[in-house]
Each structure stands twice: as C-alpha cells, then as structure tokens.
Design brief:
Helix content: under 10%
Radius of gyration: 19 Å
Number of strands: 10
Strand content: over 45%
Distance between the termini: 9 Å
Largest sheet: 4 strands, antiparallel
Strand order of the largest sheet: 2-1-5-6
Number of domains: 1
Shape: elongated
Length: 104
C-alpha cells in the first residue's frame, strides 16, 4: 500500500516504514507530523484518486532529523569584463519516517 502525498508543494510516494527526505519543516527529532494532503492512495490494486485530495486519508510520520544536501556551486562570469562571482548553496532537508497511512 502506498500514497502520493503533497508536502510543501512537492509530491512524495509514502509507504509504511519508508524514510523520506522532504524540504525543511520546523520540527524537532521525534516529533509526530500528520499530512492530510493525500492525492492518491493505492492498496491491493484498488486506486482512489482525489479531486484534488482524497477525503478522510492522512499520512502519519515521525521526524528523524535534519540534514543538508550536496553543495551547489553558482559561478557567474562575463568574458573580457573582469567580472566573476562565486556563490554556494546547500539545501536544508528534514528526514521523516512514514509510520502509518490512516483511512485507507
């Protein structure tokens, strides 16, 4: 059984026991999260699609921790103009473990 859940504008495939890396949410490790924005649910061949969300279905997850992604290097350059700029960015993520899909 799995569900497609929308978290902060992105879609994730949630299955029981799976570790997901989502965009950072302000939550402490060990905290429970409940996502009610389920777009699709599939169990034993039965598929329910929401318009836009499936009513009465939610995904419960527990926060495992916070992490950062790989560094992205930004380099801007204009030839013959003595212009070069370097910048870096590391996206912050939250690790969550899906505990249950309720209402399925």
């Amino acid at each position: 059984m799995y569900a497609l859940v929308e978290i902060k504008g992105r879609q994730y495939k949630a299955e029981k026991g799976v570790l997901l890396q989502i965009d950072k949410v302000p939550a402490q490790p060990g905290e429970e999260l409940d996502f009610g924005t389920v777009l699709l649910i599939s169990s034993e061949g039965n598929v329910r699609v929401g318009t836009p969300y499936v009513d009465g279905v939610s995904v419960k997850a527990k926060v495992e921790g916070q992490t950062k992604g790989k560094k992205v290097r930004i380099f801007r350059y204009k030839r013959r103009k003595n212009y070069a700029r370097r910048q870096g960015h590391r996206q912050q993520y939250t690790l969550i473990r899906v505990e249950d899909i309720q209402g399925a």
